[in-house]
Every structure is written in structure tokens, then in C-alpha cells.
Predict the structure of Sugar phosphate isomerase/epimerase.
Amino acid sequence: MKLGVNLLCLAGHIEESHLPQIERIAEIGYDHVEVPVMRGDAGHYEWLGRRLDAMGLGRAQTSIVPDPDANPLSDDADVRRRGLAHLSWIQDCAEALGSETVGGPFHAPIGHFTGQGPTEDEIERGVEAHRAMAERAGRHGYLLALEHLNRFETYFLNTMEQARAYADRVDHPAFGIMYDTFHANIEERDQPAAIRLLGDRMHVLHLSENDRGIVGRGQIDFAGIVRTVRETGFDGHVVLEAFGAGVPELAAATRVWRPLFPDHDTLFRESHDVIRTTWEAA
């Protein structure tokens, strides 16, 4: 298991000013960080990769589809072309950063709804786009981990039944699913059963508390979840995901309007210890 932190708890775009906090993440004993790649160019992420190398931290990545005008699922050829160009940019940055995994909801714009579930045409367009991404990822030696979101954030991919079926249709070893305990807590009746259904299609495990705060302080049964994950044989990237009100650019997307942890050091230390202990106990 490689334990990491999703850096969206710091900012939506990681710059020089965030490096001292990332150094603290390394000191506490994390193995990698999951970098938000939402804007910027490949040169910026190449620079960041070198700095993370110097700290001894591995790299993962989370990315989104930011705009309905660049939606890879669209039936409008021009919109879809812009969407596919955005997916290519995601991979340009991943290769510059040296990402081992590329996760996130890079399927449909967050908060964009059509009034119904995904159509067969949308699913087929997504499968085609993500299979092309997987072929490129396979050539460059990293994994894709598409993230399901709850029904209030997307209509495209909500449950593990949908996620497993979608990954089976993409049908490429470099393509899998990012399982997120926060979203699953909303959408699944039984998280262990959902994890077993996903099985070997899990490429990244996001551990996120029901309130998006410090892991272990809320209602989610992480012991049962981690035990089931280990039973499936998963031993890959495990990521702490927490959000705070201190990142205004994310507040509208995450609906976080209040502090969910007292400070970053407490978040990093306490979550690290809970996750390591829970993983070993399982």
C-alpha cells in the first residue's frame, strides 16, 4: 500500500508557497501526494515533479472536466473535440509530473445535468475516449482511475454497479476506477459488497470521511472497508481526501462552508496514524 494525501486540502493549484506543507506530509510518513491538475501547463508539473522527487514523494494526480463546453460525452462534434483535447492535456501534464495514477471524474463536467441518466450514446462516447486514454497510459506506464461521484455532483457514474460495467466496457488493463468512500457512503447500501463487486477494477482507494474531515472522526466504517479492500487483494494507492473551507475556489464544488479540521498538521498526522493502523489491523 502506498499512502498519500490529496492536495486539494491545500489548494486547487499547487505552487511554491505550498511546498513547506508538502514537506511536512513527507516528514509524517506519507509515500506520495495526489496533485490536483486543473490548470497550468506541462512545464509547471515537470517542475513540481522534480521538487517532489527531492522530497522522496511519489506522484499521483486528480483531474476533472471543468466546462460543459469541453465535454467529451457531448453529441456536438465541436464540443466533443474540445473535450478530447482536454483529456489529452490531462495526460500531457501527468507524463510531465511523473504520475503513477491519474484519477478523478474526467468523464463529465461536475454539476452539469441533463435531466436523465447517461444515454447509451454518451456511454459509448465515453468508452471510446477513455479507451484511447488507457492505450496512451499503458504505453507510458501509469494507471487511470476514473472516479464515481454522488448523484448531486454528476449523473454519469454514481454506483459500483455502473462503474464495474463501465470499466468492463473500456476493457483495458490501464483503466480502472477510483473508489471513494464519501460518494459510496451516499450511493451504496453496503460498502463492502460494493467493493467486492468492483474487485480488481479498483485502481485507487480514496478514504474520505462522511463530513469530508479527518478520517476516523465520523460515521464511516473504515475498518470494515479496509478489511474488504485487503480481501480483494488490492495493495495500491490509498489516498486521504479531506476538504476545508480555506480553499474558496473549491467551496462551490464541494459545498464545504465551514472548517472540517483544526489545522493541516492535525489532519495529516491523525489521518496518517488512523489509516496505517487500520490497514495493518486488517
Summary: DSSP finds ten helices and eight strands in the chain. The CA atoms of residues 179 and 205 lie 5 Å apart. The chain has one domain: 2-281.
